[in-house]
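Re: your question from the hallway

Yes, I did run it. Sequences:
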Amino acid sequence: MSTMTAPDKPESLVPEPTTLVQAKVRWHGPVTAIVLAVLSLVFFGLLTAAGATTTFRVATGGDAIKIDDIVVPSRLTASILSVGALVIAVLALLRSRRRRPVPAWMWVVYGVLIFLALLVWVMAGNDNALPLTLLLTNALGLSVPLVFGALAGLLCERSGVINIAIEGQLLAGAFLAVVVASVTGNAYVGLIAAPLAGALVGACLALFAVRYWVDQIIVGVVLNVLVIGLTNYLFSTVLTANPQTLNSPPRLPTIAVPLLADIPVVGPVLFAHPLTVYLMYIAVAVLQVMVFRSRWGLRMRSVGEHPKAADTVGIKVNRTRVRSTILGSAIAGLGGAALVSAGLAFTKELTSGKGYIALAAMILGRWSPTGALAASLFFGLADALRRVLNNLGSPIPSDILAMLPYLATIFAVAGLVGRVRPPAAEGVPYKK
Amino acid sequence: MSATVQDAPAPAPAPERKPEPDRPSYLQQVLDSTTTTVVVAILIALGLAAVLVVAADAASQDALSYVFARPADFFEAAWNAIYETYSALFRGAIFDYQAEGARRIRPITETMVSSVPLILAGLGLGIGFRSGLFNIGAQGQVLVGAAAAAYLGFTLDLPVVAHVVVACLGAVVAGGIWAGIAGFLKARTGASEVIVTIMLNSIALYLVSYLLTTAVLRQPGSTRPITPPVGENAMMPLLLGSQFRLHAGFLVALLAAVGVWWLMERSTLGFRFRAVGANQDAARTAGINVQRVFVSVMLVAGGLAGLGGAMQILGTDRTFQAGSAGSIGFDAITVALLGRSRPLGTVLAALLFGALRAGSPLMQTAAGTPIDLVLVIQAVIVLLIAAPPLVRELSVIHWAATLFGYDRKKAAA
Amino acid sequence: MRLELQGITKRFGSLVANDGIDLTFEPGQIHALLGENGAGKSTMMNVLYGLYQPDAGQIVVDGQPRTFAGPGDAMAAGIGMVHQHFMLIPVFTVAENVVLGHEPVVGGSLIDLAEARRRVKAISDRFGFAVDPDALVEDLPVGVQQRVEIIKALSRDAQVLILDEPTAVLTPQETDELIGIMRQLKDAGTSIVFITHKLREVRAVADTISVIRRGKVVGTASPESSEVELASLMVGRSVSLAVEKPAAEPGEATFQVRDLTVLDVHGNAVVDGVSFDVHRGEILAIAGVQGNGQTELTETILGLDTPTAGQLLLDGVDLGGKKVHEVIEAGVGFVPEDRSSDGLIASFSIAENLILDMHRSAPFARAGSLSPARVAENAAHRVDEFDIRVRSVQDAVSTLSGGNQQKVVLAREMSRPLRLFVASQPTRGLDVGSIEFVHKRIVAERDNGTPVVIVSTELDEVLALADRIAVMYRGKIIGIVEGGQTADRDVLGLMMAGVPLEQAREQAAGHHTALAAADAVAQAEEGAGPAPTTDEEGTA
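Structure:
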C-alpha cells in the first residue's frame, strides 16, 4: 500500500521544470538538399561546356533606370551557385543534428541558388538573353490562381472536408467572372461575382459531404465533372450565341503601387499587377494570422483534427465545417477570376488542371497559407519558365518541366522530402 | 463490514446486434432498393438537363418573354426543344427510325463501341473501390495503355492474331505498372493513393505529350504530335462488317466483365481483395498480407484501364495522340460508381454513358444541343446515387408514397 | 454543488446500459464508482455530461432539475469531465487546448495567448502541476496530458469533476501523483466522481464508494472496506458458470514461451520477459486487468507483432517473426479480443466468414479458385455443429447476435486440426447461454489434446476454465497458480493489482474471515436451491 500514499500537501507550489522531450532528428530534408546541391554542381556546373556564357536581361521596357544585360561564364557561375547551395544544405544538416529548427529563409536562399544555377545551365551558350524580370513577373501572375486554389483547399481540409473540387470552383469562378464582367463592362464587378460561383460549388460539396456523408473524394471528382459539363454547355450555347455581350470581359487594370513599383526588378515583379495579386497578398497574410492565431482558426482546426474533442467543449462541428468549406470555395472562385484577369474570353475547360496543381500546392505547403504561397510560386515559376523556354529554345523539354509540380507532390506524399501530415480527421464525416 | 453484496453472473452485458425485428414492407423495399434509386436518379438528371435545354433554346426564350400573355406558347416551345434533343439523342444512340436499312441499327452499335473502354476502365476502378482503394488515376492508366498499344502496333509487324494480342498485353502491362506505382507507394509509405493517382494522371499526359514530340512515338517526317497508324494485324477485327465500327473489343470487354466477376466472387485473390476492402484489421488477423493486396489491386485495375486505352486505339482510332484518351478515365469513375462497382452494373452503366456519348453528336447537329449536356447528366446521376437519402427526399414517388404511410425516417435508419 | 441522478435509464436498442440509476454526489467529496468494464459507468457519465440523453430519469443540480442538451450545458452547470480517451487536440499547445471553446480574445478575434498562458499557469501553479503552456500536447507524456485535461475542466470553473478511468493509462508513479491532485482538488471544494475498476486506488482516495454492475447500482461501501471485500463486490459471485469439466490430463509442454519481450512504437516493453509453458490437454488462463500486455502477447503469438527478444516455441519451432498466415498454417487457432473489428468482416456472409483464414487451402480453394459449394457445405456443417442460429448462411454475419457471431469465430478456428488454441476474451459481451456453450467447446478442445491459452479479464471465466492461471501485470507474469478448486479468488484479485503471489496469499489470509462465510453461504445455496437464474439475487 505504501506506493499508493501520496503527499498530503503539494511539496511545492512552484512547478518543476518540464522535461524536454527529445525531438527526432529530421534528416530527410537536409540530406535531400545536399544530394540535390551536389547533382546541381555536377550537372549544371561542372558538365557545362567551358567557355559558354549565359545572358540575363533584367531590364523591362519602361524602366527609369537602364540596366544592361548581364553576361556570365556559365560553368563558373553555375558551380559557384551550386556550392553556395551546398554550404547552406550542410549548415541545415548541422542545425538539424543539434535538433534546432532550420529557418525558412535558409531554404528560400537554397532554392533561389539552385534555381539560378538551373537557369544559368539552361541558357548556357544560348544567343538569346533570358528575360529574368519578365520571367518572375509572369511566375507571380501564374501562381495567383494556384494560391487562391490552395488556400481554398486548406480552409476546407483544415476543417476536415477534403476538397478535390478546387478545379470546379476555379472554373465556376472564372466563368461567372467573365460573364458578369462582360455584361456589366466592369472587370471589378466580375471579381465580386466570382466567389459566389465558387461558394455555390462549395455549398454542394458541403451538402453531400457533411449532410449526406457521401465520400468527399467522390463528391469532389464528380462536382468537377458537373462544373465542366455546365460551363461547357453554357459556353457552347449562350456564350457562343452572344459573344459580344457575354464573353468579352474587360481587362482588370494593372495597378502600379506608387514608389514601390519604381524599384528596379522588384517593382515590376511585385508591385505592378492587377488587383487580384494584391488581394492574394492580403489573403495569404490575413489567413496566416487568422488560421493559426484567431479564435475562428483555432476552432476550425480543432474540428479538422479531433471533432469529438471540439464537440465536448461546445463547438458545433458540422456547422463549422460547412462554413469553412463555403468560405474556402469562395476563395477558389476568386482564383478563377484571377485566372481571367487579363481580359481572357471564357473557353472550354479554361482551368486545364490548375485546380489539381493547387491541391498539390496545398499539400506541399503543408496546409499553411505561407506554405501554399511558396509552393504555388514554385509551380508558377516552373510554368513561366516553361513558357519562356518554349520561345527561346532550351535543353529541357517543356513537357518535362510541366511534370515537375506533380512529381514534387508524389515525392512529398511518399515522405521522401519530409513528412506531410494532413489534418487528422480529414475526410471523415462527423456522426454523433 | 459495510459492504453490501449482491450476487450476479459476472459477465457484463454489451451491445448485441440483433436481426431487425420486423421486415420492411414491400413498398419500403421497392423505394429503398438500389435499382429504384438509380432509376429515380437518372430521371431527375434527365429532368435537370431538360431545364438546361429549355434555358438555352432561343424559341423558348422568346416565348418566355411573353409567358404571362400566352403561356401555351412557352410550353410548346419548351416541349419542342426537349423533344428534339432527346429524340435526337435516342436516334444517335439506340435506333435511328429516320434512316434506311441497316443504318437504322448503326446507333446501337456505336453505343457499344463507345462503351468498350468505359467498361474496361470501369471494371478496374470497381475492383479498386471494392478493395478500399480510391483509384482516381484511370485517366493516366488509359493513356499509357493506349500509348503502349499504339507503340507496339506500329513498331512491330506480327502475324494476324499475335499482333493484336501482343499490343493488348503491352497496354495491360503499361497500365498495370502506372497504377502499380500508386499501389507500391501506398503499401510502402502509406502515401494516399488518391493524391498519387491524381498526380500520375497529369504526369502521364505530359509524358506521352513529350514522347509524341520525339522519335519514339511521332510519325517520321511529321511535325504533328501523332503516331503512325498501327498495323492492319494489330487492329481489332470488326464484328459486323465494314459498315459498322463495332469491333471484337466489345466481346473482350464482356469477357473481362465475366473475368472480373469470377475474380471478385470466385477466386481466392478476389476474396482477399474484398476482405481488405471491407475490414483491413480482420483481413490482417486472418493472415492476409494487406500491403501486397494494395499492390495487386492496383496492378489489376491499372491493367484493365490500360486495356481500355488499347481498345480506343486498336478498335477505333488507329493512331495515338495526347487526346486519345479523351475523358475516358474520368467517365469510368462515374461508370464504376453508377454500376456500384459490380461487373454487371458496370457494363450497364457503361452502356448508358456510352449511349449518351454515341448519341450526343446527332443531338448537337440535329437539335443544336451541345454534346456537353451529357457530362451534366452523367455527373448529376452519380451525385444522386451517391446520396440515396437525397434521392428519396427529391423523388416524387416518395412524396406519393408518404401519402400512403411510407415512413422516411424509418427507411433512413 | 450537490449533484443527483434520479432514476437515470439509458437504452441502446435492446440493451439497457443504465437501469434506473440513483446516485447523489455530495459537495467536496470523492465519490468512487466501482464496476467492471461494460458495467455501464461510462454511459452514465456521458448522460451526466450531456453527450447522451437519458431515456428516463433526471439530473438534479442543487435541487433544480436540469436537462443537458450538450456538453456546453453541462459545463455551464459546473460539470467537468476528464474522458478516458483524452479529448485533446494533439497538434495544439497546452494553452490552446485549455482555452478551446472559451477563448480569451484581443482585437476582436485574435486569441489572447498571454491570457491563455496565464490561465494555465494559474491552475497549474495552484496544484503544483508542472505543465508548460506552450508545449504541444502530442509531445507530452500521458500523465501530463491528463493534467491538461484537468486544467481544461477547472478553467471552466468545474465544481464537479468526473474522472473516467483516469488511472487506466498511468504508471504507478503517475497514479500516485494523480491521487495527490484529487485530494488537493477535494480540499479546494471540488467534488470528484472517480470512475474505476481498480480497488487499491478507490481505497486510497474515495470518501464514498458505489458499485455498479449490469447497469444498476448494486451496493455501496465505505473506504474502510478491505480490498478483498471490494473485489468481491465488484466481481460478484459466480452463480451458474461452473463448467462441468473432467480433470485435465496434461501431456507434454508443446507450446513454450521463453523470455518474450515486445516493444511498442515508443520503445516501452509492453510484454516484458514473459515465460510460460502450455501442455497438451491443458488450459492456461492469463488473467489480469485490461491493458497489462495481454493483447500484445496474443498478437505476437499470431504474428501481428514481432517479438523484440525471446522465443515462441510450438513443437520446438519458433513462431516469432513468422507471418500471420504461416502461424495459422502451423496449426494455431486464434480468437481475437475484439471480434467485430478483428475477427469478422461484417459485410461478408456467414459462410465466407467461416473460411476467412482458410480461404486459400483445400477443400475450399483449388488453383486459386473458390468452390462456393464447398464453402456453403462447410458453413452448413459448422452452423449445425456450433448451433449458430441463422436464417441463411449467405446472410451477412452482421445480422447475427453477438453470441452467434462469436460462435462463428469459434467454429472457424476450431474447424481445423489445431496444435495450439489461443482465445482472447472469448465470452466478452455474450449472454449466459452463449457463455456456457463457448466454455464447453473450449474444454472440449482441451480434451482433444490441444494446448489452450485463454486471456480473460473476467475472474469468473478464468476460474471456470483454467487448469493453471498466470496473472499478468504491467507486461510481466507476476505469478502462476493452479486453477480449479484450489484457486483463491482473493489472491488472484490482489495479484491482478500487482501484489506478488506470496504477499497476496498473506493479505488474503488475513482478510478472509467475513467473505469466507459469505462464500460458504453462497455455495450452500447453489448446491441446495433450484437451478440458478441469471437474474440478480439481491441479498442487500
